[in-house]
Amino acid sequence: MASNTKTNTYQLHLKGFVGGYDFDADYVDYVLSKHKDTEVNVLIDSLGGQSSTALSIFSAFKLHGNVNVHFVGMNASAATIASLGAKHITMDSSAMYLVHKCSIGFFEWGQLNSDGLQALIANIEHQKADLDKLDANIAQMYATRCKKEPEALLALMKEGGWLTAKEALEWGFVDELTDYADESAPVLTDTMACAMSAAGIPIPNMPTMHLTAQEQSAFAKFLGALGQLFSNQKIQSTNNSTQTPMKKIFKSICAILTCEHLMSNEGKITLSDAQMEDIESAISADKQTISDLNAQITTLKSEKQSLTDSNTQLQAEVATLKQKPGDTTAHVVNDKHTDQPAEKSEAEQYFESRANAQSLFDSLP
């Protein structure tokens, strides 16, 4: 065990959720690039997080080739994976260490018919196969560090129990234990215990304490992220739909967007701002056209009603004229030709007007 005098200065402090702002692969790459030819000391205190980020940090440590990791507090899952790329790993004698099988968040709700159930089963089987591969890969990484068979590490991951610093050393996860005076033993809080339970992490048997309201608020940011521990996938939700993108043809929409089809993924179609503007313009133009046509129809209906009324009035006048006695002609007819046309009689004028009105009425739609 190392002495209680700390001589290292840490260039990297990785705490909290693996994949969060304070345990980020890009930040690790940046710091390592600033110390390409020098030793880099890293302090880790984390319950885990995204396996994808952990694997990236593992590779960065390994490529640098001169990284030392020191564990304090309670460290689990992805945090332990990230450390495997270090040249030398030390651990505070009061710290805790956990490895377990990978997991993903999964929620299912609603009703499914036989096709939906079959799709759900196929999706779950695919996810299980991916998790089995990831577990086997990580077990091999642990085995390489511990110089043991992968099957032994996979069995330990399946058990998923907390290891003391001494047990972690015996397994070979760490190379050395320390007992620095300024590194206190980890304390389990109520909020921490709830977060572990929600993430499926076993709760160790150790002293507990209560957080203040301010401390609980600060730690709450960690809870949501911890729920997807070891997950490099999005939470899967199913509601009688498959995960395979499908081509959907909506003739009117596709005509507006001048495309052959639209892609549907998980029952949703994503459109760009430009496409939405094209649809909005087309709908507005159609609305204006409909409004103009309605106005024309209203005008024609009014004209048709007016002509109908005129026709009714003319028919009444014809009936009245038919009941009157015929006119007598008492004047001498002038058979001399004149330049002026002969004046039409009242009956001729009436029948000419009636014929014109009937022709106009018949021409209406």
Write up what this structure looks like.
The protein is of the alpha/beta class and 365 residues long. It has a domain at 12-238: 2-enoyl-CoA Hydratase, Chain A, domain 1 (Alpha-Beta Complex). It has helices spanning 25-34, 51-64, 78-83, 114-146, 150-159, 165-171, 190-199, 213-226, 251-257, 273-323, 346-363, and strands at residues 12-18, 40-49, 67-71, 74-76, 88-92, 96-98, 106-108, 162-164, 176-178, 188-189, 208-209, 236-238, 246-248, 262-265, 268-269. Helix 1 (25-34) runs parallel beside helix 2 (51-64) and helix 4 packs across helix 5 (150-159). The longest helix is centred in the C-terminal third of the chain and has 51 residues, at 273-323. It starts with 11 loop residues before the first strand and ends with a helix. Mean pLDDT is 80; it is low at 228-244. Keywords: Hydrolase, Protease, Serine protease. This is ATP-dependent protease ClpP, protease subunit. GO terms for molecular function: ATP-dependent peptidase activity; ATPase binding; serine-type endopeptidase activity.
Write the layout of secondary structure elements.
Elements: E1 12-18, H1 25-34, E2 40-49, H2 51-64, E3 67-71, E4 74-76, H3 78-83, E5 88-92, E6 96-98, E7 106-108, H4 114-146, H5 150-159, E8 162-164, H6 165-171, E9 176-178, E10 188-189, H7 190-199, E11 208-209, H8 213-226, E12 236-238, E13 246-248, H9 251-257, E14 262-265, E15 268-269, H10 273-323, H11 346-363
Parallel strand pairs: 1-2, 2-3, 3-5, 4-6, 5-9, 7-12, 10-11
Antiparallel strand pairs: 6-8, 13-14, 14-15
Helix pairs in contact: 1-2, 4-5, 7-8, 10-11
